């Protein structure tokens, strides 16, 4: 039976997918998300790198790169027998322009298209709603399915005029990381620890809350001098953040730079709590990874976190960006070993059962089948 795309694919035939991804040199949430899924797809999924290759790309370079990527994309679709195109933009003007061109190309070549919105820029949404709503519906209304990272994003997408199927999909934690976390001995917190290490792991940029994190640490340090802070990640604000920490005379701050693989596992293992005061998110994988290692999380109610995060049970969550608020939450964790222990056990168990990459990959492949007419009624209800 034909699916949404008008194409019928036999249930026993692997689906051929062309999936767009940022270049591997562009470290970030979307790159990590798609990298974690790659080993667990059962169908034929080919990754197609698109987007800027550096932080400071000039206008002329960006235009040439967009033209080159679009030409390569069209050539691959003509030469390859793909069933589905899977685009991965954020709701941001540059990403929507780039992927809008790809969407039109794919639809001109009669391909089914899934759009997975990984990030959501509030300013872009306001511009779309006020000035570009008709253009958004004209271009992105042609997508067969949208996927978002939280139920709040689904409502906002409807307000922008998208009226086809929308799925809410979780973010993955790499199964290797989950297995490593299972080998980690959960802290029992039998007494007050002589040290307490706070972890901030993200791209080092303003919108990720790096300066709120440093100010929070300064406040906590005043009453708990044994605490330390690990900042893991690189990005455009790294040099300025290091200078800021020195200017504030913040002792006990370690900047590791980018970490991955076993080095990433180690920063989680040596942490006692995870601090993530990000300004805006889709669904931050780093929070899920921290939970997999049994870390209490202190964060903001951004993106898809509001769908599942249990305040007081998984850590603490707030709407505020005030470092005093974050410091108060962290101080509760520092001073209450039994609370840390109960949160640690809960988060470790929760992440093991909810966030594995193999589960998320299977969910995406179910959506592929839905678009091509092979999904069951559970997917119809979810949309």
Quick tags:
383 residues, alpha/beta, six-stranded parallel beta sheet, 16 helices, 15% strand
Question: Major sheet, described briefly?
Answer: 6 strands, parallel
Oligomer category: single chain
> How many E strands?
12
Content-based structural category: alpha/beta
**Dominant shape:** globular
Fraction of residues in β-strands:
15-25%
What does this protein look like?
With 383 residues, this protein is α/β, with parallel strands linked by helices. The chain is built from 16 helices and twelve strands. It has helices spanning 29-37, 59-79, 93-108, 122-130, 133-140, 151-159, 175-183, 210-223, 238-247, 262-269, 285-292, 305-308, 323-335, 337-354, 357-371, 377-382; strands at 16-21, 44-49, 84-87, 112-116, 145-148, 165-168, 196-201, 227-232, 253-257, 273-276, 297-300, 315-318. Strand 3 (84-87), helix 3 (93-108) and strand 4 (112-116) form a beta-alpha-beta unit. The radius of gyration is 22 Å and the shape is globular.
